[in-house]
From TrEMBL:
Matching PANTHER family: ENDORIBONUCLEASE LACTB2
Name of the featured protein: MBL fold metallo-hydrolase
Species lineage: Bacteria, Bacillati, Actinomycetota, Actinomycetes, Propionibacteriales
Pfam families: Lactamase_B, WHD_BLACT
Family matches, as SMART domains: Lactamase_B
Start and end residues of each Metallo-beta-lactamase domain: 29-197
Matches recorded under InterPro entries: LACTB2_WH, Metallo-B-lactamas, RibonucZ/Hydroxyglut_hydro, Sec-metab_biosynth-thioest, WH-like_DNA-bd_sf
Length: 266
């Protein structure tokens, strides 16, 4: 049985408030990340924080986040899915903080995130890494001082990510994984993974390598299914994902559609 992740303080720089919204797609629940520079003794200082992915419109959760995070300088969103963004407007109201995302429609009183920019708040330096693929607006963050990668849903703490076709696309997703691998390689030592769902993982680079290998394996399986006569995404899912709980087949179908589109265009 896989151990449940309940959040909490994970480093001198980062804490996680795990929302109570478990499910097949959200795993243990949505991880809301609070980033704040430590003081000289390694404790969280009174400096302002950065909050990543406030989660759903869940008042008790949002108030738990605020209790840990206040004062908040800015709220960042890793992508548009409701389990990460639905509560952003309410949390921004509670925290009196702006909201930034790649999608301008999700921003409140602030500009959209830009690939390659560095967000600096009271000692926290967060590097913005565009990572489209799960969705077109997906973004990750590198916290170099903490040797940590905040990956949203691009890389999960357990299992693999759905490429949510048609918004998501496999070609950009593979490119994003390689971009994140290069970012991890640019940090001295091992980089931990702070995902949007699931537990913290000790070696982000190894996880990303596993994701790349898994995608190549799935593409081979899809090609074989097509050669064997599969004519639709549903046919491929029944063959390739036969060992996966059928309750996950609708999500698998989205990824298969992305794989089929990728194979048609490469």
């Amino acid at each position: 049985m896989t151990e449940r992740f309940d959040g909490g303080v994970v480093s001198e720089w980062a804490s996680c408030v795990r929302e109570d919204n478990p499910g097949h797609m959200t795993l243990d629940g949505t991880n809301t990340w609070i980033l704040r520079a430590p003081d000289e003794q390694g404790r969280a200082s009174g400096a302002r924080s950065i909050v990543v992915d406030p989660g759903e419109l869940d008042e008790p959760h949002l108030r738990r986040v605020l209790e840990m995070a206040a004062p908040v300088a800015v709220v960042l969103l890793t992508h548009r899915h409701h389990d990460h963004t639905e509560g952003a407007e309410r949390f921004a109201e509670l925290a009196a903080a702006p909201v930034r995302a790649v999608d301008p429609a999700l921003c409140l009183d602030a500009d959209p995130l830009v690939d390659g920019e560095t967000i600096e708040v009271d000692g926290v330096r967060l590097e913005v890494l565009a990572s489209p693929g799960h969705t077109t607006d997906s973004v990750s963050f590198l916290l170099r001082d903490d040797a940590a990668l905040l990956s949203g849903d691009t890389v999960l703490g357990r299992g693999t990510t759905v490429v949510a076709h048609p918004d998501g696309a496999l070609g950009p997703y593979l490119d994003s994984l390689r971009t994140l691998r290069a970012a991890v390689d640019s940090v001295e030592g091992t980089v931990r993974l702070y995902p949007g769902h699931g537990p913290v993982l000790a070696d982000a680079g190894a996880v990303i390598d596993g994701y790349l290998a898994h995608r190549e394996e799935r593409l081979t399986q899809v090609r074989e299914a097509l050669d064997a006569g599969a004519e639709s995404a549903d046919d491929v899912v029944r063959t390739v994902y036969a060992d996966v709980d059928p309750i996950l087949w609708p999500a698998a179908t989205l990824s298969v559609r992305a794989q089929l589109e990728y194979l048609r265009t490469t």
